[in-house]
Amino acid sequence: MRRASLRLARWHAHVNALDAPRALRHWLTGQGSLTAKLIAHSARFRVQRLHQHTALCLADEAQAVGLSQVARVWEREVLLRCDEVPVVFAHTVVPRTATAWDWPLFGSLGERSLGSTLFGDPLVRRGELEFARIRAGHPLWQRARAALAVPDDTTLFARRCLYRRRRGSLLVTEVFLPAVLDLVPRPLYRNEK
Is residue 191 part of a domain? Predict the structure, then answer.
């Protein structure tokens, strides 16, 4: 396989195209908020912001966010942690043409969850999920590895979704780390129901 082809993920409309482990499918295909699901699987959920700044979008993102070519975007990368264990590496891009009117809270999220703002806003329209295998040559694999130890031969599975609000678009890619398979639902106590 040529090195350039490893830098692109092949995104699919259906999870079956990935041949993902059975235990990972419910994480990949869940339609609700991933944040809410992770909270239900941990005693302490936390967002660790790695950075938020302008950067060139990835080659396999440009068309998805409506750009005719690779260009500068607002980029945010975080680790989603359950009981301090990183379980998801999340990467978000917003075209620089978007305004604060389109995405009013994006610039001030800090270590708050983007998911909770997206699912709580009635103006946000969610697109269809897409799925991919992320291999060692892909920039998101390399960034996930830089944030934590991922063995060289590990294939990571990801999903992405395009969100729209007013005239703005926002693409969220969630790369599921191996530790997500160790999560189990947290029992509900009487006062939590």
Answer: no
SS3 content of the chain, % helix, strand, coil (to 5): 25, 30, 40
Closest CA to 116 of 193, 38, 25, 44: 38
Instruction: Tokens for 137, please give them.
Output: 């040559």
Nearest-angstrom CA–CA distance, 98 and 166: 9
> How far is the C-alpha of 57 from the C-alpha of 35, rounded, in Å?
24
The C-alpha atoms of residue 94 and residue 68 are separated, in whole angstroms, by 14
pLDDT tens-digit series, residues 155-169: 899 999 998 888 888
Q: How many domains does the chain have?
A: 1
- DSSP H helices in the chain: 3-6, 22-29, 34-39, 114-119, 139-147
Give pTM, 2 decimals. 0.87
Q: Which domain holds residue 165?
A: 3-183
Asked if pLDDT for residue 190 goes beyond 90, the answer is no
Residue 136 token pair: 């060692």
Distance, in Å, from the CA atom of 29 to the CA atom of 114, rounded to the nearest integer, reads 18
Whole-angstrom distance, CA of residue 54 vs CA of residue 76: 9
Q: Compute the distance between CA of residue 1 and CA of residue 20 in angstroms, rounded to an integer.
A: 21
What CATH number is given to the structural domain containing 167? Answer: 3.40.1410.10
Distance (Å, whole) CA 92 – CA 73:
10
Position 173 in a domain: yes
